[in-house]
Amino acid sequence: MIPPRKTRKIKIRDLVIGGDAPIAVQSMAATRTIDVAATIRQVELIQAAGADLVRVAVDNDADVAALAQVRKATAGRSRLSVDLQENWRLAEKVAPFVDKVRYNPGHLHHHEKSLPVKEKVAWIVGVAKRHGLALRIGVNAGSIDPALDARFGEDHVGAIVQSAVDHCRIVDDLGFVDYCVSIKDSDPRLVIDANQRFAAARPDVPIHLGVTEAGMPPDGIIKTRIAFEQLLSRGIGDTLRVSLTLPFDDKGQEITVGRQLLADVEAGRFRSVPPNFFNQLNIVSCPSCSRVENEKFIELAQEVKRMTEWAKEHSITIAVMGCRVNGPGETDDADLGLWCGPTHVNLKRGEETVGAFTYDQILPKVKSEVERLVAAKRNN
Questions:
Q1: Coil, strand or helix: which one is 366?
Q2: End of a domain among 267, 302, 334?
Q3: pLDDT tens-digit profile of 344-353?
């Protein structure tokens, strides 16, 4: 049920993706990278589950030093990818310890604004060339260049796809070919639309599939399945990740679920989606990574889900995000948003900030906000 793919082949060390190569399955370490022992254990756990690639995040020099130790301990067994997020200049420092670098086009607009984006991309590509690395252009729907978003008006998906296409052109002009693209969002319908549009515009570029911040099982698996079934069956997708909010010791489930979804689509085992699936309570939560500054985030997401079970029939979206990098922007589209810091949780009502509360204070605040939202919907 997966037709032949038209993309070119690229190499991530000895791993080939694209074209007729097997569809790769990957995951991301949820531990803080500076916790070397925990991160090594996490990488090995994910690897033991059958991962083709494991991604980690770096945000500062301390993370880079820790990454060097992780690489030394896992070399020969694990292929590593690094997530640069906002600190694009770390590419040079992490290059000796990884096989692939991911950068987010949207984040390149926010730092060192005096430098043209093309210069930043050229610098990253230069690092990749010198060290024999692959690249991922990782477009996230929640962090698009505001000018590009404004240009496309109400066609937000158009802006997202154009961001990917523009960066492919920049990288192409630099003579670099070992790159893939990901276009992610927490809504599988947007993921389907955006990836179909991108594949039509650039059928040659390998695509990494994922529904970001899909949440906790089983809903997170259902959202991911929706996107993967629709895209893989159209020949779109060369590598994939299932992003789930899970306890650290269970992170290998992302690989297990990913392989099962892939096997199901290959065998034609599709699942129906209830017609009201998107008209009920929707908990959006990130899968955690090294940027999370308090591990209570995972417990908080689970508590929010349990506490709001009574409102499951109401069309309300609650986003629970684990860090300051993705948290502020990724919660804007939710009716209620939480993004977590070391000691406090920031609570938002749409784009409006309600306040910052300790982990002990936040749940009653969320409860009252949900009650208010439900009452407002009933009155309408």
A1: helix
A2: 267
A3: 999 999 999 9
